[in-house]
Model the fold of this input.
Amino acid sequence: MLNNISKQTEYDSGRTGSNVAGRKRHRGADPDITEQQVIAIFNRIDSFSEENKKHAALSLRTYWETRVKWKKKDCSKKQWVKVQKIKTILGDE
Done:
């Protein structure tokens, strides 16, 4: 499921489009992904197509659930704002 590409190169590239967004959406399941990379995806999620936005949101939810940062009682105020945005994208509210 995950591509064997250089994560940092993909991150540092200025490219946009469905291929980059498509690869980024799978990163939530990647055990080697850093919090910094997750935040970068979150910050760019609005620029993704609707389909890729939903896939990225699902990956972010998975990432945050596995790191106990999804429920309000388990996260900071800033994190909770991010969770709310992802829930809105997924239609979970």
User: Anything to note?
Assistant: Helices lie at 7-12, 18-25, 35-44, 50-66, 77-90. The mean pLDDT is 76. Residues 50-66 form the longest helix (17 residues).
